[in-house]
Write a structure and sequence with these properties.
There is one protein chain. Strands 10, 13, 14, 15, 16, 17 and 18 form a 7-stranded antiparallel β-sheet that branches. Strands 4, 5, 6, 7, 8 and 9 form a 6-stranded antiparallel β-sheet that branches. Helix content is 8%, strand content 37%. The chain has 287 residues and is mostly beta strands. It is elongated. The chain has 4 helices and 18 strands.
Length: 287
Amino acid sequence: MVGLLTATAACGPSPDDAPTSEATAAVVSITGTAAEAPELNYPVPLTLDAPITEVVWEGDGDEVVEGEPVLLRVYSENGTDGTAARNDFLSVPVPYLLTEEAIGSDLFDVLSGHRVGARILHAVETDGVPIVTSIDILPTRAVGDLSAPEAGMPVVAHDGVGAPTVTIPSDQPAPTAPVVRQVVRGTGEQVPSGSKVVIQFVVVKWSTGEVYDTTWGEGRLPKTVTVGADQLIEGFDEGLVDLPVGSQVMLVVPPGLGFGPSGNDLSAETLVYVVDILAVSPAAPTG
C-alpha cells in the first residue's frame, strides 16, 4: 500500500463528458472531472481518526477481478503539508495485478467490487503520514466500436476479458507493405509521437499463426512503451502514432520493417501485432 500511494512514478465518465463531481468524507472532500487531476480539500495538517473510503462516482465498465490486471490512475497528497506525492495525470497510469500480494490488503479491499470507470477517494495513515488519494480505475482492454473484418487480412476474435485471438487467412500470401487497421475504434485522445503509451498486445507469426509474444494471460500485465523514439521496431512504432486511446489496432509488419536482417529467427518473418491502446502520457508543451 505504501508503494502504490506514495510512489513517484472506461467505461464510466470519459475525460470529455464527465461532469464535475464532488464527494465529501468526514474532513476530506474531492472535486474535479476524469480529465484532470482532482482537487483534494482537507485541513492541513490532516488528522485521521480512521481510514476514509468513498466512491466519488461508480463506473459502468467491467467489474475488476481478483488476479486480473487493473489499470490505475492515481493522484495523492501528503496530508501533513498538502504536497503532491504522486500525479499520474502528468505521466501514465500504472497496471497492477489485483491481488493482496501485489497491492496490499488495504487497497485490495478498496478496489474489490468496483467497475472500470470508477473514481474512489481513499485516505489512510501510513507510517504516521496521512495520505489522501484519488484512484481512477481505467480499462485494460480496448473500448469502442468493432470494425468489419477486411478480406484477405487476419481475423481477430475476443474472449470475455478482451484478449484477442488472431487467425491468419489460409493460403493467403503475407502483404509486402505494412498494414494498419483499427479493429476497435477508440474515442480517446490521439497518441502523439514521443509519448508514453500503455498497451496490451499479442504478436503472431503470419507463416504459422503461432503466438510469439503477448501481454495477455495469467500473471501478465500491460506494458508501457515510448513511441516515435526509435525504441520499437519501425512498423510497430509508426502504426500507433495519431491513433486514439481506446483503439485496438492490427499492425501487419513485413520483414524489412520488423527485425530486419539480424539473422534471428524472425528476420524473414511477417509479424501480426494486435495492440490495445489503453492510455497515453500528456503531449509535451510546445513553444
